[in-house]
Amino acid sequence: PIASDSPVKDTLGGATYQQVEDTNFRLRPVLKELTKTDYFKYYKVDLSPELCPFNDDELGMCGNRACAVDVIDDESEVPEFWRSQYLGKLAKDSVTTDRLWSPDDDAVASKLCRANGVSVGHEYYNVLPSPSPPSKDDYLDSELEDTNYCYPEDESLSGPGTYVSLPDNPERFTGYGGPHANKVWRAVYQENCFGYFGDSNQDSGTSNAVSSGDGFSAGQLQPSLPAAGSLLSSVLMDSNRYERQEVGGESGRQALNAEKQCVEQRLFYRILSGLQSSVSSHLCYEYLNQTTGEWVPNLDCFMSRVGNHQERLENLYFNYALVSRAVSKLRNYIDDLHFNNQDASADQATRRQLLRLIKSSSPVTYSRAQANDTNTPTSASSSQQKLLLFNETAIFSSPEGRALKSEFRKRVRNVSALMSCVGCDRCRLWGKLQTAGYGTALKLLFELPENPADDPELCSTVMSTFRRSELVALINTLDRLSKSIEAVTYFRNELQSQAVEA
Ligand code: FAD
Question: Does the pLDDT of residue 68 top 60, yes or no?
Fold first, then answer.
C-alpha cells in the first residue's frame, strides 16, 4: 500500500522519481564531501530574532538544548582567509556593485540573451565575502529591486552575525512546534504571492497572516510514498500557462477558491511546500528518542508529515530538480569564479570540488569546449536531458509573467525575512540558509543567461553581486534536499520490510 506506480495526476511533464533518485545516488557522496570543506561548512549568519518583521511577544521561544546553535566564538577556528580582520583587505579586489533593477531590464535581458554574443573571456567573478552589501533595511524601506531573491547574509567586517559550522549544528528534531511554528508556516504560505495558495483551512488572500486563523490541518490523502520509477510530474508546463488544480490535495482545496493559477504562482507554492517537506523529512530522519537519547529515524513521524501526502512528496522532488538544475547551470561560469584571491591552489581545489558536484548534478554534463552548445550533452540522451531539466524559459515569459517577476522576487525575499521569526535558533539557522539557497537558485535560473557569451554585460552584472554566502547557501540547500531524498528511500525500504514481515 505504500505507493502507486501510476503517474501523478497533473498536467505538467517532468522528471521521474527514479531520475531524481538516480541523480542523488551519484551526487550524495560528492555533496557529503563538499559540505565538509572549509569553504562550504562555515556560514556567517545573523540569527537575531529582532529581524522578524512582526511583533510577536505573546509566544515564547524554544528553550530546548536542541534548539540552540553552537556559534564559533574563537575566530581562529574560521579559515584565515575570511576572518573578519582580513575581510577589509578584500574590499579593493571584490566587485560588489549592486545595481537597481529597472523595468526595462527583463526585456533587455531576454533580447540580449537570445543574441549569440561575444565571449566573456576570462573575467573573474569573486565569490568571496563582500565588504559592504546593502543592508536589509535598504530592501525593506526603499523596496530596492535588483536581481536578488533573498537577503544574502552579510559577511563584511562590520556586518552583524557570527560564523557557524554547519556540520556541527545539524538540522534535526528540536522539539520546536505548536502554535508558534504553525503561525510562522502560515505566514510563509500567505506570502504566497497572489492570495491563491497556501494550505487547507486558510483564508486565501488574508493579509495579516501571522495573527489570523487557528492552525493548519493535515490533508487526507492515502499513503503515497513513491515507488522508484513512478512518474514525477513536477516540471512546469510549457504550453498551457494556466491550469485547474486537482481538487483533493492541499493546493487543490485552495483551487476551489482560486479557479486558476499561473505557472509562476504554482512555482512559488511548490517551493514553499517542498521546503516544508524537506524540513519535516530531516526532523523525522533524525528524531530524538527520548528514552534512549539517540537520534533515530521515526517512520510514523515521516509518514504522517510527508509520506502520506503525495503533493508534499512531489514538491520535495520538484525542489530537488530545481536546485540541482541551478547548480548545474554554474558549469558555464565555474572557470570565471574566484574563491580565494590569496591562495591559488586553494582556489583551484574549491573549483575542482565544485566542478565535480556540477558534473554529478545533472544527467547532462558539458565539457568546457561544448559550453557554447547547450544542446550537446556528452553523457546522456537528449530525452533524459529533456526530462530532468527544469524548463525555466517558460517562466516569466508571458506578458503577465514578466509583470509578476519583480513581485515574485519581493515575495521570495519576504519569506526569507520571515525566517527570522522562527522561534528556535537551530531551526532559524537552517530556515535562513535554505531560503537564501532557494533565492540563489532562482537568481541563477531566472537572471542569468545559459552561457556568459550570450550576454557578457548582464552576466557580469549578475555575477559581480554573487557572494560566497549565496554559494554556500545554494550548495547546502542542495545537500538538505539530497538528504531528504535519502530519507525518503530509507523510509520506503522500512515500509517495505514491515509489509513483508506482516
Ligand atoms: P507542521 O509541520 O508545523 O505543519 C503545519 C501544517 O502545515 C500542517 O498541518 C499542514 O496543513 C501544512 N503542511 C505540512 N507540511 C506541508 C507541506 N510539505 N506542504 C504544504 N503544507 C504542509 N522543527 C524541528 O524539529 N527541527 C527543525 O529544524 C525545524 N525547522 C523549522 C523551520 C521553520 C522555518 C519552521 C517554521 C519550523 C521548523 N520546525 C522545526 C518546526 C516544524 O516544522 C513543525 O512546525 C513542528 O514540528 C510542528 O509540527 P506540526 O505537526 O504542528 O505540523
Answer: yes
In short, whether 484's Cβ falls inside 6 Å of ligand 1 is no
Q: How far is the CA of 112 from the centre of ligand 1 (A)?
A: 42
C-alpha dist (Å) from residue 3 to 207, 251, 263: 38, 20, 27
Rounded Cα gap, residues 89 and 132, in angstroms: 12
Q: How many residues are given for the chain?
A: 502
Q: 429 and 153 in contact (C-beta within 8 Å)?
A: no
- 104 alpha-carbon distance from chain centroid: 27
Q: Whose CA is nearest to atom 30 of ligand 1?
A: 427
* Cα dihedral: 17, 22, 27, 29 (round 10): 120
The per-residue pLDDT for 281 is 98
- Which residue has its alpha carbon closest to ligand 1 atom 27? 427
Q: Is 186 in the pocket of ligand 1 (CB under 6 A)?
A: no
409 is in an annotated binding site: no
Q: Is the ipTM of this complex over 0.90?
A: yes
pLDDT per position as a tens digit, 105-156: 333 333 322 232 233 344 566 676 655 544 444 444 344 456 777 777 776 6
**Grid cell listed for 222:** 492515502
- For the Cβ of 283 lying below 6 angstroms from any atom of ligand 1, the answer is yes
Residue 341 near residue 126 (C-beta atoms within 8 A):
yes
* d(CA 311, ligand 1 centre) in Å: 15
Q: Which of 193, 301, 427, 459 is catalytic?
A: 427
Report which ligand 1 atom has the smallest distance to the Cα of 419.
34
Strand-strand pairing, 162-165 and 42-45? antiparallel
CA distance 35 to 46: 20
Backbone angles phi and psi of 12, in degrees to 5? -90, 140
Name the residue among 280, 136, 129 with its Cα closest to residue 199: 280
- Report pLDDT for 249: 38
Given the CA of residue 315, which atom of ligand 1 is nearest to it?
A: 18
For ligand 1, the distance from its centroid to the CA atom of residue 281, given in whole angstroms, is: 10
Other CB atoms within a 10 A radius of the CB of residue 389 amount to 18
Of 359, 335, 296, 354, residue with least CA distance to 451: 335
| Distance separating alpha carbons of residues 167 and 162, to the nearest angstrom | 15
